[in-house]
Amino acid sequence: MSLRGKVAVVGVAEADLGEVGPGFTPLDLIGQATLRALEDSGLDKSDVDGLFSASAYYHMPTLSVGEYLGIRPR
Amino acid sequence: MNSGDSEPPAEVYRRYLESGGLGYQRCAGCGAGCGAAVFYPRVLCPVCGESGLTWEISSGLGVVYATTAVYRREGDPYNVVLVDLEEGFRMMSRVEGVSAERVEVGASVMLRVDREDDDPSPLFVLRGEGP
């Protein structure tokens, strides 16, 4: 089984980098990047049905990110 | 790239708390927002995904949705609750002023900002009873 032609990267973005200001949480930055990636892709949050996350800050980050973004993967 | 066009939500929340108010967000999104009450504070609406969240102050009046008593090795147990605020958001907190086991689901509570630590904390007391 091949993924060729079935999977594509459709939106890419970064959160603020460097001095982002005191008080922005890692989840806020993930939220920033998500907003920008969705804008880049032309998709709405409601189109998202999967979520993958990695973090050096949160334990089991996908749970926290899913709650923050309001995304409930299929 | 630093946008710098918005303050950190946690900072705004903290400022409201220091002045005695419980701040929460409402999804307004240039009029196109879904109107959801959003808590805890964040940079986008978890319901519709809009970034235009505006700040409002809660009345501090709510009803206990869930409650539990946490027993420590020493000292009295403390209470942990989920409170449904009348503006339509739910938050975790503690009900103080009564023993932990006396807090019941459905109890009417009101906000009391605790200032004993450096960071003010939003706690609750039972309505109709003194603090």
Structural class of chain B: mainly beta
Largest sheet of chain B: 5 strands, antiparallel
Distance between the termini of chain A: 22 Å
Protein chains sharing the most extensive interface: A-B, 25 and 19 residues
Number of strands of chain A: 0
Q: What fraction, in percent, of the residue positions of chain B are helical? A: under 10%
Overall morphology of chain A: globular
Overview of the structural elements:
The complex is a heterodimer of chains A (74) and B (131). Chain A is an all-alpha fold. Helix content of chain A is 34%, strand content 0%. Chain A is built from two helices and no strands. Chain A has helices at residues 26-41, 61-69. In chain A, helix 1 packs across helix 2. The mean pLDDT of chain A is 92. Chain B is globular, with a radius of gyration of 16 Å. Helices cover 8% and strands 36% of the residues of chain B. Chain B has 131 residues and is mostly beta strands. In chain B, a hairpin with a 4-residue loop joins strand 5 and strand 6 (90-93). The mean pLDDT of chain B is 90. The longest helix of chain B has 10 residues, at 9-18. Chain B has a five-stranded antiparallel beta sheet, with no helix packed on it. A three-stranded antiparallel beta sheet of chain B has the order 2-1-3. Chain B is built from one helix and eight strands. Chain B has one helix at 9-18; strands at 23-27, 37-38, 53-57, 61-70, 78-85, 90-93, 108-114, 121-126. The chains are: A mainly alpha (74), B mainly beta (131). Chains A and B meet through helix 1 and helix 2 of A and helix 1 of B.
